[in-house]
Design a protein that fits this description.
Helix content: 10-25%
Structural class: mainly beta
Largest sheet: 7 strands, mixed
Distance between the termini: 17 Å
Strand content: 35-45%
Shape: globular
Number of strands: 9
Radius of gyration: 15 Å
């Protein structure tokens, strides 16, 4: 069984450890509402996200899950204030997502024109032992 896990860029930048396909990681996983990710990755892809990795929430204080990382994809998108907004609060602009397969995640990504790095989509499988 494989899982798709969202990893926020800032979570990894703050206190996460770099990882690559084949690595075994120990993550606190929280279930997600696909709607929270639809504007970043699109509705179809968002429905495939099973969990998010979490370092900072009190909800995350449970037994970490051992996972073998299979693939890592950077997620980039454009951010802007919604057209009908009365504030300058920016959010993801639907339809601007670019997915970039990578061989390592460290919380940072190479700059891309007109879009910002948002996080990672990681496919992994639960494991009981370190590989």
């Amino acid at each position: 069984m494989t899982l798709t896990i969202w990893v926020d860029d800032w979570q990894l930048q703050c206190c996460g450890e770099a990882f690559a396909p084949g690595d075994v990681v120990s993550w606190n996983l929280l279930e997600v509402d696909p709607e929270d990710y639809a504007s970043v990755v699109g509705n179809e892809r968002a429905t495939g996200i099973d969990f998010r990795e979490e370092h900072h929430s009190q909800e995350a204080e449970h037994t970490p899950t051992l996972l073998e990382v299979l693939t890592i994809t950077e997620v980039h998108c454009r951010y802007a204030a919604p057209p009908d907004s009365t504030t300058n609060v920016q959010g993801p602009v639907p339809g601007t997502t670019e997915l970039v397969p990578v061989n390592e995640a460290n919380g940072w990504a190479e700059s891309r024109p007109d879009i910002s790095f948002a996080g990672y989509l990681v496919t992994a499988r639960p494991t009981k032992t370190e590989v």
